[in-house]
Amino acid sequence: MKIFLIFAILVSGLTGCDYLPTSENKAKKIVSEALIDPDSAKFRSISAGLHEGEFCGYVDGKNRMGGYAGATPFIVNTQTGSAEIGENPITKADFRKFALLLSTNADFMEIVKEEIELKKRCTFPERWKNACKDRYAENVLERPVGLCFAITNGVQDGGYRIMSVMREAFP
Length: 171
Prior knowledge:
Layout: H1 2-14, H2 23-33, E1 42-48, E2 54-60, E3 72-77, E4 82-85, H3 92-103, H4 108-132, H5 145-153, H6 160-169
Antiparallel strand pairs: 1-2, 2-3, 3-4
């Protein structure tokens, strides 16, 4: 009887605990592992996505300087174990940096890496809408639409479209 009572107390103490193997806790673990400081993760507004195993929400974690970076939207798929954490809103300054890379004799791999990152950040709002069924994450929707279109569609023409749009944006 004493063993049963001790077991019942232990189990009742675990209810609501983040250590139980639920899908939401698995999602939190995947997202946490993608952060610079996994132990610093603070989650809010987590909800199931449109597809099985998907979760959306916001995570705040410490940056390289040890301060909290602010709530950042994320999409996680618990079946594949993949997490995508939305970056800060993309701005013209990000494209200006890319334009400087293109206009100099920068390393080709550095240019490709920056292009991939810009594409990822430009297309995150659409992925959020497709996975999370509601409006895009707070304050991250604003983005230079013409520049994002050029970066996501301009590779086929050898970068001509990217360069022409950037010339217009940065006279």
